[in-house]
Amino acid sequence: MKVISYNLRKHRAAGELASLADRHDPDVEATARNRLGLAVYYRENTYRALDVRAMRLKKSLHDRVLKPAEERLLGVVLRDIDHGRELIVASFHAAPLTALNSLRRHQIRTALVELEQMGPGLPALMVGDYNYPVFKEALGQKVREQGYELNLSDARTYTRYRFFRGHYDFATSVGFDIERVRTLPQGRSDHKPILVTATPSAVPMSPTLPAPA
Fold first, then answer.
1. Structural domain of 191
2. CATH number for the domain harbouring residue 31
3. Contact 107, 95 (CB under 8 A)
4. All residues at 6 or more sequence positions from 82 whose CB lies less than 8 Å from its CB, including other chains
5. In a domain, 42, yes or no
6. Domain total for the chain?
7. 208 lies in some domain
8. How do residues 138-185 score in pLDDT, each as one tens digit?
9. Are 44 and 13 in contact (CB under 8 A)?
10. What does the pLDDT look like over 12-38, one tens digit per residue?
């Protein structure tokens, strides 16, 4: 399956979704906006949605003061119509850079717990804006300790400001073989879209995740 994740920058790049879908033929698109929430689009002739949940995560000071959105995670349980198997795809948007990495790690850990509860043992793929441009190796180790894999794209996804350039948009997965994560060309957003090519594993592993503190 192919999944596109795109931070639309407060809806500025919404008009690009149709052309992205035509050009790259994705099965799932996950879009994240700092204001007004999250969205997931999927092929109705390939998948059927069994469960959809928008979830709150621990708030940063930015969230408490400016109130950009109540939910930062949207999970969808999909059934592959042809093969009969089920999987989870989620759109995730972490707290902005004004927050500490420790808060974003808490949000990621909570998000993975919530997705596991949606479908215990199901393959799960969470894509989105992690707002984690530095210390990514340490984050990857934390994610692996929880039974998941963290994959970065092949090029930077944010280049607007010199001192904040880097990889922001990731894919976290369990029960998937990630073939490639590719950064797509810049559009009207300050983030570049990413294209994740992945295959559900034959026998997914069910991670054992501690409850968030």
1. 2-200
2. 3.60.10.10
3. yes
4. 46
5. yes
6. 1
7. no
8. 999 999 999 999 999 999 998 776 667 888 899 999 999 999 999 999
9. no
10. 788 888 899 999 999 988 887 656 568
